[in-house]
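= Tokenised fold =
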Amino acid sequence: MKSKIATVTAGMVLGLGALWAASMPQAPQEYPPGELGRMVKLGEAIMNQTDTHPLTKDLVGNKLQCKNCHLKGADGKPGTGKGIGTFIGTAAAFPAYSKREKTVQTLQDRINNCFMRSMNGKRPIIDTEASIAMAAYITWLSQGIPMKMDTKRPCSPYNSARWAKNAKKFAAIQKKATHANYLNGKKLFEAKCASCHGKNGAGMGTFPPLWGKGKDGKWLAYNTGAGMSKLNKGAAWVQSNMPLGQGGTLSDQEAADIMLYVDAQPRADFDLKAHLLPKEQMGYYNSKVLDEHHSVRSNFKAFGLDVDAIRGDKVIP
């Protein structure tokens, strides 16, 4: 009976995902001419090679690229996938209000802030070539889509409502999590995720790492300030996009348990000030929140959970 319910639930999720995909326009195929086209292509290259590209490698503190969360579509371009995380339409939502920063953010703000969290690195300087190029690429993917500034969150109109709805749904599920859910998440991860991301979460080949440190002692994946480190948001993204090419096939509980397991693994703490360049170099930082800290433990506590009880050990500091 439980298996049948899970199958029906997954089918409903897949159906909703198909509706979102059907309403989303195709990405443009022709680059703009001249210097604008060069910048769009440069932005695309940075999205694909973020941790190794000459313009951004010194700003990245792990082994991730933008394309790892903003998945490629059928055209092979980063951010043109149909799941949560698509870049299509994103530029049309800006300027947009951010509850996290408590200010109205520009598209460049949004991109640059991701370097501090998902990339576990330093915030790029606004109006540098890299910052402009990434914004140019994302804006190019929004051509022809009507502008509608978002008063609630800084993300694509094709992400905003489903992101909020699913984050709320998974928050309710994760608040009830137990050690049994963690063990089930480990089992599901090994069955559905480890073939790409590795049993130890360190990534395999071109597939990205999800936690842990490399041989050099440096963190491999996103830190505890990233959206993926939040138990509800990570589960919403995973259900929409994973397993790769099979987004929408995980039931609510499966997606929740997998991310409970993944986000209970050791990863870098987040201290906002440590990810900002010196003021004389960076310039103005568009945020009213200037002091922010997160850890694996505090991320679990936000859902009323004790990570030690969830894991069944005391590995997390």
